[in-house]
Amino acid sequence: MDSNYTAGSKSSYIELEHYNNGTEIELPKSNGICKEIFEENGFGDLDDVPLIPGDAELISNREAGSDIPGAVFNLATSIIGAGIMALPATMKVLGLVFGFFSILVMGILSEISIELLVRFSVISKSTSYGELVESAFGLPVRILSEICIIINNAGVLIVYLIIIGDVMSGSPEHIGVFHQLFGHGVWDFRKLVILIILILFLAPLCALEKIDSLSLTSAASVALAIVFVVVSCAIATVKVMEGKIAKPRMGPDFGSKAAIMDLLVVIPIMTNAYVCHFNVHPIYTELKGRSPQKMDCVGRITTALCVLVYFSTAVSGFLLFGDDTESDVLINFDRDLGIRFSSVLNYIVRIGYVLHLVLVFPVIHFSLRQTASSLLFKEPLPQGRTKTLALTAVLLGVIYLGSTMIPNIWVAFKFTGATTGLSLGFIFPCCVALRLDKRGENLTRGERVLSWVMLSWAVVVGIVGVVGNICSFRSNSS
């Protein structure tokens, strides 16, 4: 493929030099793009500037990589994970009407923040979430953002293992799949089951070095999530038609102190369900013929898909189990559903979603490993197969230990949702956009106002969520 670019070596990166009619045009040597130089030489449109500089072959061969469906699958897989299992419990707190409104608004706001990330990553030529933050605020804030990614992603992966353990081996209140199928045995030891699944199934997928290698597994994981949604909606529909479901609550419950405490923390949990921003950069990098407009299309399709899946899951789960809905709705499917083929449907729902989590796990782990490598070794990705495997093993070990110490997914989501989830999904993207748009050249007036509104809302919700978590913890302790 012919190109007007030539590569000149630099100590830490490959600089691209553009020649226009034989005249060299100077490109910036820092982390930002000198927009005036581009406009002066007839290159005012920044949409075609690659997000990831670096490899000359990668830039000259931009048609390689995943297409829009593959990118949608990877981004949707980053979103539709364990959060979907907590949504029926949030619907129990919020009620059907306000719950649906929250799911829709959170999805739209999250998609807007993704568009801000892509736009300003192109403008600043940032290669990762942390580098984008550094281009706006410097190294200390970048380190803070990377710590947030590590805590958030590690927390999400710990939740995945908790769900897998609860479903397959059971919990004190619920019977596991293995026990129902085979009776008592070694599979009743939850920690052992999680360890075996981690070693045999999760570790090989996590050892892959490119996120594009996970496109097929991501597609399969989305399909399994849709199977779960279809089956649960079908069960709820049958029970509604048979008159076996009580009228659901439409709004929040203010009748008790515990209900009010749940209201204080449920919105951060809802926002955490859409956090995928840490994977935007690697997905954009491997998007075939990438441009901000194309990535915006990926984000909008993904958001529409996730809103549909989330609402269907939240409503069907709440209708089926009402006030008995658990923080992880999957463990509710260990009982007789009161319809034909109940046991078969229960197995399909639980085993299918465990497989979904197994396929989602490496996608979230990829950005966790990438961020840890950047923070520890100053490398966007671990350089060398040995270092990759070693870092993967250490991270998986820490995640496994965390899954044995945290009691349930509600505890994990309450903490990450009010802190790292809001920070990664809304606070950092809005702050970066407002900081890099000093002269109002890249944001319209309406976008600036919206960014300020989103930032203020996220800060308030985060503070309220943290206060609610502290009050809830004290109440439980007493």
TrEMBL record:
Main location: membrane
Cellular localisation: Membrane
Residue stretches spanning the membrane: 68-87, 93-118, 139-163, 189-208, 220-238, 258-280, 301-321, 347-368, 389-411, 417-437, 449-470
Keywords: Amino-acid transport, Membrane, Transmembrane, Transmembrane helix, Transport
Topology with respect to the bilayer: Multi-pass membrane protein
InterPro entries membership: AA_transpt_TM
A single Gene Ontology CC term: organelle membrane
Sequence ranges assigned to domain Amino acid transporter transmembrane in this UniProt record: 69-464
Sections of the chain in a coiled coil: none
GO molecular function, one term: L-amino acid transmembrane transporter activity
Domain of life: Eukaryota
Name of this protein: Lysine histidine transporter 2
Source organism of the structure: Apostasia shenzhenica
